[in-house]
Amino acid sequence: MSALKLFVHNHGTHGDQSLVKTITFAMTHFTVAFTVAYLLTGDIIVGSLIAMVEPAINTVAYFFHERIWSRRQQNARAQHSTAQTI
User: What does the pLDDT average to over 6-11?
Assistant: First the structure.
């Protein structure tokens, strides 16, 4: 199985909520981006385009940001438990 398929298949196990958080963050971000872009431009097309492009890129970045922080916390817990056993 490919690494990406394994990642998606195993994602969400053991209480991992980062994918759900990413989706809700994306919906919020799309709404805010559209509202701001529309208010600044007065154009529904331009507002829609900006609202689709910028948050889509930001959402992907956020997803990986969450994964990095999650891994960092896991490593810190592992080091802490290793230090206590020594």
Answer: 59
**How open is the CA angle 42-55-11, to the nearest 5 degrees?**
155
Region of 14 on the Ramachandran plot (φ > 0 left; ψ -120 to 50 alpha; else beta): left
What CA–CA distances, in Å, run from 25 to 5, 53, 77? Answer: 23, 15, 27
Phi, psi angle pair for 69, to nearest 5°:
-65, -40
Distance (Å, rounded) from C-alpha 19 to C-alpha 66? 9
Task: Return the pLDDT at 32.
Answer: 92
In the predicted model, what is the mean pLDDT of the chain? 83
Q: Do 58 and 29 contact (CB within 8 A), yes or no?
A: yes
